[in-house]
From TrEMBL:
InterPro entries (UniProt xref): Nitroreductase, Nitroreductase-like, Nitroreductase/BluB
Enzyme Commission number(s) of this protein: 1.21.1.1
Any one GO molecular function term: iodotyrosine deiodinase activity
Keyword ATP-binding belongs to the record: no
Name recorded for this polypeptide: iodotyrosine deiodinase
SUPFAM superfamilies in the cross-refs: FMN-dependent nitroreductase-like
Source species of the chain: Gallus gallus
């Protein structure tokens, strides 16, 4: 009888084999390998069931992470399925009217510029309310509306925001951003001094809610929260332009946690954009930039 690794004989009693220490180790290794393979197959199956067809890694917004948590976290709760559906009545225009309106809207938004020289001239609060209402009409993943618009008009609070931003921006320009980035910004004549944070009558800080809270305290998933809030920001910019107000889109690097604490925002909110809003100063200037023509940005197939 030829011993195998599963039964290497040390003695024979009534044709019963007794495994040696080496054989015992082989058996344990085989069992461990089988267990590992089973666990791997289980994980592979689970990962396939929650996989998402991401177009690009940059599009990740944590939705997949939330879905994994939801399976084991009793804090999470799904949305109410009992939503009534009602008839939709669309407003239709003639082709001539459609062309006229689309052209007029394009010409309006083509005048939009990023203005860094804003006056302290007062702006009616109702206008700010209306442009944010407009931004709130934006579509969102599963209609979760994962946005918070914080409007700051208090001069002392605006100055504290400026201090935080300028402190971090100086470090950004000198150490974090790198020579290429800083060089690319030279034509815009920007630096870490942000006077408009004091002079603009309003600062609008847009936060994305990475998850929400239901009335019962349970968490709810906010699908594609960053993409949803970004769309709302675009609608806000269009609404500001339509109202005759100007801004410059800013994304202060490394300022989010400090500004969130200053404004007493909850942990589920992350700063996405900061917009100073107002009228341009009489001596305001902007770079003489041009936009890409239609044939460079549109592909018809």
């Amino acid at each position: 009888m030829v011993p195998t690794k599963a039964c290497a004989l040390t003695s024979t009693r009534n044709s019963v084999c007794f495994p040696s220490m080496r054989a015992t180790n082989y058996i344990q290794q085989d069992r461990h390998a089988m267990k590992t393979n089973r666990e791997k197959e289980k994980l592979d199956t689970r990962s396939k069931s929650i996989s998402r067809p991401w177009v690009d890694e940059d599009l990740r917004d944590g939705t997949d992470h939330h879905l994994e948590e939801e399976e084991v976290d009793e804090e999470w709760q799904g949305l109410d399925e009992n939503v009534a559906h009602v008839p939709f009545v669309a407003e239709r225009y003639s082709e001539a009217e459609m062309i006229k309106r689309s052209r007029s809207f394009y010409e309006l938004l083509n005048k939009r510029r990023s203005v860094r020289f804003l006056s302290d001239e007062p702006v009616p609060r109702e206008v700010i309310d209306n442009v944010i209402r407009t931004a709130g009409t934006s579509p969102s993943g599963a209609h979760t509306e994962p946005w918070t618009f914080v409007v700051v008009q208090d001069p002392d609070l605006k100055h504290k925001i400026r201090e935080i931003v300028e402190e971090e921006e100086e470090i950004n320009y000198k150490k974090r951003m790198g020579d290429r980035w800083v060089n690319d910004l030279k034509r815009l004549r920007t630096n870490w001094i942000k006077e408009y944070l004091d002079t603009a009558p309003y600062l609008i800080l847009i936060f994305k809610q990475v998850y929400g809270r239901l009335p019962n305290g349970k968490k709810k998933t906010h699908y594609y929260n960053e993409i949803s809030v970004s769309i709302a920001c675009g609608m806000l910019l269009a609404a500001l332009q339509n109202a005759g107000l100007y801004t410059v889109t800013t994304t202060p690097l490394n300022c989010g946690p400090q500004l969130r604490a200053l404004l007493q925002r909850p942990a589920n909110e992350k700063l996405l954009l900061l917009l100073p809003v107002g009228y341009p100063k009489k001596d305001a200037t902007v770079p003489a930039l041009t936009r890409k023509p239609l044939e460079d940005i549109m592909v018809v197939m």
